[in-house]
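Quick illustration, no need to memorize.
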Amino acid sequence: MHFGPFSEALNDTVKMMAEADLVSIAEGRPRGFVLTRNGARIAEQVRKSHRELFKESERLVDILADVPQNDLIALVYELYPGFAKESEIRGIRSTNVDAVHVPIEVLLKERTIELSSTKGIKYEISVDNNRLVLREVEQEAQ
């Protein structure tokens, strides 16, 4: 069993990186890893040769740095349900995370569809000039 999103491929990659002295694995809950000196040296070489990729990665880290852990886990589980399969915390929820699953084939055929999010908010989703348009549908007073 695992606590949080789990990827067998990522787990295998981290193990190989540890064997190559690129990362050090911190056991416990949650399990984590840090770059070794050798890993940091190689990461710096990669950063210099792939500047744009690292800029995007740093931008993503900046965006996610202040997001509470439960919100991140809930978002990952919503977007990638397979990651929750063996998780002991797969039922985690967040009041800050809402999602709508768009059936792309139906949207492309119909051009406009109405869906409800996981929090029950209704949206109209349409394709207009190769752009995806998301509009919240006003709720009728009951």
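Helices lie at 8-19, 37-49, 51-64, 69-79, 104-110.
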